[in-house]
């Protein structure tokens, strides 16, 4: 049973490191654009761009040498699997730039029609809602966690609501959203 | 009180990006992919692992959550608390209109469960080149712009009057 313990510890440490660094940098994944639009401050926006660029390059390189696998359902079971099998695809052209076929990565072409489904639209609308709600709350979820740890009681209530939504969703709300995955 | 230098956000982005992608490869955090960090999904998995002990069928978790407890969110709280203490930035700010923040947190998690991601993981998935992550990131940008516009209008109205 060493593996579950180690892996749990890994998640705790990733969280702690990110929490520490996020507190030091005041990083927020939403405030970057907000600050740019409000006062033309680019500092946090640069954080988002550097994150995107780093992930893009690093994931492409690791795919190229076969250290990352791709194209998998979010859940191992239930109807979501069917919905997302053709869906959660990591095959948009640009990974190919750094991962030529000769290196043996498992990137198959997926017909465009397979991706144009309700979940694509739901992702855009959901993202839009997240942006709106995060601006209203004054920061993304990561920033709310950091503020909560700094002693901000509003952020503490945000995080409590965040946790409380999980059982409510699975007991009462999940049916309302099942059409998203059909 | 001494003023300490802050970390530049672009350096945070660099470290976080390398950490998330590297941890996935190194520790085999899979499936799903791009899952080394997410506050919404990891909190969902953590809560559902615990709730699943009571009533297993209703509470779904991702595959990786069957192999470990996803303690990312408590970790972030711990790390940020340590940083705030070490650099003496811990200040208790009492809640104002706290119920609104509770509801905002509730709504953000609900949306996060539906589209599999908090803003951080949306950016992570988009960086991986995942189509849905890119779609959500585009939405996130538009939503942020709309929210900022509302902020601006409200600010203007409050200064006009």
Mean pLDDT of chain A: 79
The number of domains of chain B? 1
The residue fraction in helices of chain B comes out at: 55-70%
**Count of DSSP strands of chain B:** 0
Radius of gyration of chain A: 19 Å
Features:
heterodimer, A: 182 residues, mainly alpha, 9 helices, globular, B: 161 residues, 6 helices, 0% strand
Q: Which secondary structure elements does this structure contain, and how are they paired or packed?
A:
The complex is a heterodimer of chains A (182) and B (161).
Chain A: H1 2-25, H2 31-39, H3 43-64, H4 78-85, H5 94-98, H6 112-115, H7 118-137, H8 141-150, H9 153-173
Helix pairs in contact in A: 1-8, 2-3, 8-9
Chain B: H1 9-27, H2 39-52, H3 72-86, H4 98-115, H5 119-127, H6 131-160
Structure description:
The complex is a heterodimer of chains A (182) and B (161). With 182 residues, chain A is mainly α. Chain A has one domain (2-181). Chain A is 68% helix and 0% strand. Chain A has nine helices and no strands. Chain A has helices at 2-25, 31-39, 43-64, 78-85, 94-98, 112-115, 118-137, 141-150, 153-173. In chain A, helix 1 packs across helix 8, helix 2 (31-39) runs antiparallel to helix 3 (43-64) and helix 8 crosses helix 9 (153-173). The longest helix of chain A is centred in the first third of the chain and has 24 residues, at 2-25. Chain B has 161 residues and is mainly α. Chain B has one domain (9-160). Chain B has helices at 9-27, 39-52, 72-86, 98-115, 119-127, 131-160. In chain B, helix 5 crosses helix 6 (131-160). The longest helix of chain B has 30 residues, at 131-160. The chains are: A mainly alpha (182), B mainly alpha (161). Chains A and B meet through helix 1, helix 2, helix 3, helix 7 and helix 8 of A and helix 1, helix 2, helix 3, helix 4 and helix 5 of B.
């Amino acid at each position: 049973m060493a593996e579950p313990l180690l892996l749990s510890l890994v998640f705790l440490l990733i969280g702690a490191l990110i929490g520490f660094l996020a507190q030091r940098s005041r990083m927020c994944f939403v405030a970057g654009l907000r600050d740019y639009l409000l006062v033309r401050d680019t500092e946090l926006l640069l954080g988002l761009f550097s994150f995107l660029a780093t992930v893009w390059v690093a994931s492409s390189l690791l795919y190229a040498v076969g250290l990352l696998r791709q194209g998998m359902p979010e859940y191992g079971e239930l109807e979501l699997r069917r919905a997302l099998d053709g869906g959660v695809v990591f095959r948009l052209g640009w990974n190919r730039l750094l991962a030529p076929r000769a290196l043996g990565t498992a990137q198959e072409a997926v017909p465009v029609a397979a991706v144009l489904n309700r979940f694509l639209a739901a992702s855009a609308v959901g993202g839009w809602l997240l942006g709106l709600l995060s601006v209203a709350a004054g920061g993304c979820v990561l920033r709310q966690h950091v503020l909560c740890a700094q002693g901000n009681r509003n952020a503490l209530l945000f995080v409590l609501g965040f946790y409380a939504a999980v059982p409510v969703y699975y007991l009462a709300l999940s049916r309302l959203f099942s059409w998203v995955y059909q | 009180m001494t003023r300490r230098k802050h970390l530049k956000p672009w350096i945070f982005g660099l470290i976080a990006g390398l950490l998330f992608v590297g941890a996935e490869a190194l520790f085999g955090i899979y499936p799903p992919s791009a899952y080394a960090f997410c506050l919404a999904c990891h909190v969902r998995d953590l809560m559902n692992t615990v709730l699943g002990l009571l009533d297993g069928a209703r509470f779904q978790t991702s595959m990786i959550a069957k192999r470990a407890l996803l303690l990312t969110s408590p970790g972030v709280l711990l790390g940020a608390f340590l940083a705030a203490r070490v650099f003496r930035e811990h200040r208790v700010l009492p809640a104002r209109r706290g119920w609104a923040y509770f509801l905002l947190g509730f709504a953000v998690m609900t949306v996060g469960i539906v589209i599999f991601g908090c803003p951080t993981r949306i950016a992570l998935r988009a960086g991986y080149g995942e189509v849905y992550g890119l779609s959500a990131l585009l939405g996130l940008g538009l939503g942020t712009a709309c929210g900022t516009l509302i902020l601006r209008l409200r600010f203007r109205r409050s200064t006009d009057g």
